[in-house]
Give the backbone structure.
Amino acid sequence: MRKQDTHYDFTRRTVLKLSTTAGMSAGLSALAGCLGNNGSDGSSGKIVAKDQIGAGDGNPSLTYWMLPDQSHTTTENKNVAKTVEKFFQTWAKKHSDAGIQIEYQTNLEQMKTKLLQVVARGSAPSMSQVDSFWVPNFYKDLQPVSDVIKNPDDWYPFIKDVAVQEGEWKTVWKSTDCRALYYRQDLMDKYNDGKPPKTWDELIQVGETIKKQENMSGYMYNGGKWEATTFDNLAMFWAQGGDLVNDKGKPVLDDGKNKKALLNVFQFFKRTIDSGVTPKRIANINDYALLEQAALNGETAMFLGGNWQISTMKQKADEETWKNWKVAKIPQMKADIASTGTGGWTEGVFTSNKQKRKAATDFVGMYAKRENMASYCKASGTLPTRKSVYEGTKYFSEDPYMQVYKKLLKNGRARPGYPIYLTISSEWQTAAGKVITGQASPEKAVDTMISNVNSQYNS
Amino acid sequence: MSFTNMSLIDPDYQYVGLEAFQRVILSQSFWTMAKATVIFVAISVVLQIVLGMILALAIDYGVKKHLYGSVSTRIAVLSAWVIPGIVIGILWKIMLIETNYGIVNYFLVQSGFSVVSFLSDPQMALLSTIAANTWRGTAFSMIMLYAGLQQVPQHLYDAARVDGARALQRFRYVTLPQIKPVVFINLVLITIYTLNTFDMIMSLTGGGPGHATEVLALFMYFEGFNRFNLGQAAAVAVMMLSVNVVMTVIYMRLFIDEEEF
């Protein structure tokens, strides 16, 4: 009897349990399916997972070094994530048998070192994001991507100077940046006929007036021990026709015109400090945010900053404040010369295997397409490297700041990507620090800098 | 590695004997940095020992007298030691920033003084890094010396009191000889920590202005990872190791009696 009851109960419970379990399983399966196929393309059945694109056992199977903040997994910028994911989906649809294994590089400095090491050992990834500044270090190892560059003349000259080697495009330079003079329009209206200074003399003159009348600094720039102290101010050296290295990467700072141009820049630094237009505290400014802070706190009328800063100023200040800040070309020794430092990221192919190379080139080539470049640069807040993007896309053509950057990029120049540049930059920072703080005269600082750079190169 | 011309960007290298050492020593900036390092290490170590001792004695006194706050004081002081160097550098930078909104300068301006160039004046920048390093290192020194003070038998103090020794004399003739081995270990460790300080200076001043705060550890980093000269970076590391060993031997001679060896 008891057994029968038990049997009856068991059957009923089992049915209930089974129904519940089946229901839950179906729910979980659906959920897992949704999560597992996040970003999947229904028609091709390919997945875009965190670190795997396309088939896990794909043929060919590519490896890809990627920075998280430029990937489809970034949580800091959802627009970048969506744009990159779309690129992956398009690629996966086209390459149904292939796969990409993503290896995230979380530390920029380590990435550079690691990439140098693996390339030197012959075990480079199939493709990698490469800082535009590193490109010349990898000329030997980067595979040509000329096939995906459809209209070479549409790219800015500074892009071609670096990306093209012996007639071949070595990398796809997907986005860039530039340096510019930020100035307060209301103060220029009041003290300089509404126009920003074009020359050093004008800058000092208007800066002195503003300092006297408004009790604030006239002009600020990066002067601390970091790369921007060199890179931002190199525009003043380049505009005079100065060169840091020759075609073979040998430093040429002690050549007559280069040394003169260098000395002029350091004498300008001294003038900014001696005239009181710039505060000495710039010797410890090693973050663009500090310049922004000074600008928004009403401490300076002008500063030398990067193109991306207008958007961060927009986020931090009310509309009236940020709109009062305009951008212009960097003041130079003479009004008719111009230059600006440009950086940004490229996508490079390292694999020499024919099949892999084709698949990798197809992927990096996506960034070269005009519409893709526009959507990526818009999402990431960077500048396009193709001139036509500034005209063909509303976001760029209707923004007055973008139109200024477009003009500045015509005189854009990238840093020489030879190892000696790091010494030049480090010595420049030291020399600038010494001149700004009065530890050395411009002449002595320049002589020491040149001597140290040459000694390092010769060793 | 220090006997090679190894580079980060070239897999090939040769053994070049002492050439890397020679290059480092002949470099103009090396001696400027060596001078900054000696000043930084010497002042930091002395301050950490002295302040650590004062704090340890104060806490020991507080515990013995059952005063309130001795535990919270230890926690507060130790918190400085557990914070990563990079964060300490950023914290001090925020405090010393040279505008009215820099915390220290704000109070100075409010008190009628003018803004002080804590980080852009070469001498002040070195003093600022010493202050930040001392703030961090004093906690470790304090905890070591406090542990040493716990080992001193109470009856020695009682006997000294019976003999009429005053507080300073008890410290000089009872406490110091008893905690000499702890002071030795403490000195060795804080000298090593201070000589190897890199992260805090990197985020506080980056070694500038000029070379004003560029200590040898920072120089080694720049040499290896900025200029890719692994051989020369290794040579600097070996030189730093040698300095640490020499300092340890000197401390042993000064603090440990021969029979204790």
Notes: The two ends of chain A are 99 Å apart (CA to CA).
